[in-house]
Amino acid sequence: MPLYKSQTLKIYNSLSGEKETFTPIHEGNVGMYVCGPTVYSNVHLGNVRTFMSFDIIFRYFLHLDYKVRYVRNITDVGHIVDDVDEGEDKIAKKARLEQLEPMEVVQRYTVDFHDILNAFNFLPPSIEPTATGHIIEQIEIIKTIIDKGIGYEANGSVYFDVVKFNKTNHYGRLSGRNIEDMLTNTRDLDGQTDKRNPQDFALWKKAEIQHIMRWPSPWSDGFPGWHLECTAMSTKYLGNHFDIHGGGMDLKFPHHECEIAQNEACTGQTPVNYWLHANMLTLNGKKMAKSTGNNILPREILTGENTILSKAFSASVARFFMLQAHYRSILDFSDDAIVAAEKGYKRLMEAMNSLKEINAGSKSTINIPAWKQLCYDAMNDDFNTPILIAQLFEGVRFINLLKEEKESLNADDLDCFAKIMTAFVFDVLGLEDEKVSDSTNDKLQGTVNMLIEMRKQARENKNFALSDQIRDQLITLGIQLKDGKEGTTFSI
Q: Is Protein biosynthesis among the key words of this record (predicted)?
């Protein structure tokens, strides 16, 4: 029997503002679309956090034995600077500044995006379509919207008539806005635009002479509006009605609101059952921004080449840090926070390695089935990774008690316990055990043994200050000495 049949998953739906029981459109299958990056610069840490949230969601659906089609796009055209309908395309601007072809910019930063996500152990999506690869589909959608009387052409550009659409639909439902308030709070257009209403958004933009990214269309040589690509690609690969659409909280308005409007104008039905939004990442309590210097790139965390952190941290430690907060909560990144996360991560990995050495007893003194369900309860409550991690550390406590033979598990319970710990730590959370290589480990052991011998000689010479100094400095490096009848040993 598939695992999803025995678990009740609840998801917070941004559309309703409530947690709802997840019921897929087609039993055993999940269709999920997530807005991907605009590839005009290096992927930033906030992007990584957003995509990690949906990587966890993807992994958990797979763990529950669903067949998942996960579509995450690449925006390589049509995204105007400042996310409005006037100005310069972000990729075209970067190409002009660096004197490159736009597709060189796209290639460079798409490769960077994939490299970073691979380093952080993300599963690849089922399909990763590009906006430029779906120009024909976008043009066909525009034709349909015009035929329905919701789109209009003006001087070679095409716009979506939000006011007319709102007469029969609710534009703003996802973000909690209403059109009357938006119209009241917007200045008059003063004849500076071809739009009929301030809230109308571009479906197609006529390219100016200097614009280097352009395609032929029935209206002009130009390029599609930013919002249109996701409507075209989500419906092409998931159908007009699918299960989940996700992205960052910042995309709720206007991007996702416009997507809903486009879909409903074309098909006459609500396109998505569950809208999921991941929250933002701050740095040292402030918004991350290149302009203020309060910024760090994912690669800089891994290399240590930054002025924010005290040292380099592994991708799994950074991943573990991010998963300690719920995906809908704001998460603050700092040196203290990731140092603490590293300690927790190492403790978890040490326990996972110790688990392999535990032998079964004749009886069980720990209720493993109850603990197992608590792990599932955490993930079934809107993918609550911090609560899951708390349960996994309860599992770490079990491991320590089993090692000390203060508790025992029979063979069946030990096997179940090991499988669940492994599944949630490595398969669902996507952590990796970044062990020190054997050669590095040998060098470390030799160095510490040399210091133990120096400390022994210092004590024999009654140089207790040096003896204590060696012990204390090793402790600050995370190496603890243990004096016993057999001599001195150490542990990391």
A: yes
